[in-house]
Structure formats: structure tokens, C-alpha cells
Design a protein that fits this description.
Number of helices: 4
Distance between the termini: 96 Å
Strand order of the largest sheet: 3-4-5-6
Largest sheet: 4 strands, mixed
Radius of gyration: 31 Å
């Protein structure tokens, strides 16, 4: 016959075992819930990093009013509109750097969007609509040469890398604007073939 104290010990151990099992099951469920929450907020795919490619920037020079092709290795997306914006972002970063030959103050997202549309009826190629940030236009140095060099370098850079673009129009903060900084006409359509270039050797 089993002594009474042994029965009590057995019952106590049984209750403790059941309680521990319940705690372990609950802990496992909570860990599973945390794992699922982590999967929900984690990105499903790794961010895509565009491969570096050779590109040509038409860089303006205020000293002689020229545009000089400069070769650069840049990460460029495949989408043509995104590629056009990346090219222009880099061009305007060059102008915002110390010692620039065509100094223009830099602002975040100076080029807000670039839209590519079929050229007007009867013409071949594409029309690029470049939407500039208002802060960029407001801070741009005034003067016909300074403003026209910026416009022409944008047109020339687009043509050098995306030759299907034959025409460019400009918006500022998504709206038409009369001039860039008081002189360069932004109501007209610019032909990319009209951008003057200095065919001197480019540089990295």
C-alpha cells in the first residue's frame, strides 16, 4: 500500500508538470506570433540596386558658355523615366558641388519627375516633360546665360543617353512657369538637337 505522503508528493509533481507544460505551450504560441509579425513587416524582396553603367553628362561651363560631354559611371535603372530622372539628378549634383563650372545651389529632389510621352503628331521620337522642384527654380542664379545653360545641359544630357528623346518641356512643382529664374523661357518646347556641345574629351 502506497503511503499517504507519497500520494501527496505525486499529486504535487503532477500538478507542477501540467502547469509547466501549459506555460511552455503558451510561450511557444507567443514566439510563433512574434515570428509571424516579423514576417509581416519584413520586406518580401531585397531592394533592387541598379547596376553601374557608362553615361554621358553634358556639363555647362559659365566661362565660355559651352557644354562639355563628361563620361560618368552611374547606377541607372532600366525604366526610361526613372533613368532620365537619375541622369538629371546627377547632373544637378555636379552643379551643386564645390568648384562647379556652372554653380547652381542644390536642393533635395531638384527633379521631381520626368514623364516620357510620344512626340506630337507628325513627329518622331519622344517628348520629355521635366518637372523641377520650386525650390530649385527659386534658388537658381538669374541671368540669361546661366539659365539657358541649365536648360540646354538638361536637354543635351537626355539626348546623349536617351536618343529617342527629341523634345523637352519644363514644369515647376507640376505647373507651367514663365521662366526658370526670370529669363529662360519655360513656356516653349526645346529641341534636344539644338543643345550646343563642345566635343572635347570627356572625363570620369
Amino acid at each position: 500500500m502506497i503511503p499517504r505522503y507519497q500520494k501527496i508528493i505525486f499529486l504535487v509533481l503532477l500538478v507542477v508538470s501540467i502547469a509547466m507544460a501549459a506555460v511552455l505551450v503558451r510561450l511557444r504560441e507567443r514566439a510563433h506570433e512574434r515570428l509571424l509579425r516579423g514576417e509581416d513587416i519584413a520586406p518580401t524582396t531585397a531592394p533592387v540596386v541598379a547596376p553601374a553603367e557608362q553615361a554621358t553628362l553634358l556639363v555647362a561651363n559659365d566661362l565660355d558658355g559651352s557644354l562639355t560631354p563628361e563620361a560618368r559611371s552611374l547606377p541607372l535603372p532600366k525604366d526610361e523615366e526613372a533613368r532620365a530622372r537619375a541622369l538629371l539628378d546627377r547632373l544637378l549634383e555636379v552643379y551643386a558641388a564645390a568648384g562647379a563650372t556652372h554653380p547652381v545651389p542644390g536642393v533635395p529632389r531638384a527633379v521631381e519627375q520626368v514623364f516620357l510621352l510620344p512626340a506630337p503628331q507628325g513627329k518622331s521620337g519622344q517628348l520629355a516633360v521635366v518637372n523641377l522642384a520650386g525650390a530649385f527654380a527659386d534658388g537658381h542664379p538669374a541671368g540669361i546665360q546661366a539659365e539657358m545653360l541649365t536648360v540646354q545641359s538638361i536637354c543635351g544630357t537626355l539626348r546623349a543617353n536617351l536618343p529617342r528623346i527629341t523634345e523637352v518641356r519644363f514644369l515647376v512643382d507640376g505647373e507651367p512657369r514663365a521662366t526658370l529664374a526670370g529669363h529662360a523661357d519655360l513656356t516653349r518646347t526645346y529641341l534636344t538637337a539644338d543643345a550646343p556641345t563642345n566635343a572635347g574629351a570627356g572625363r570620369e
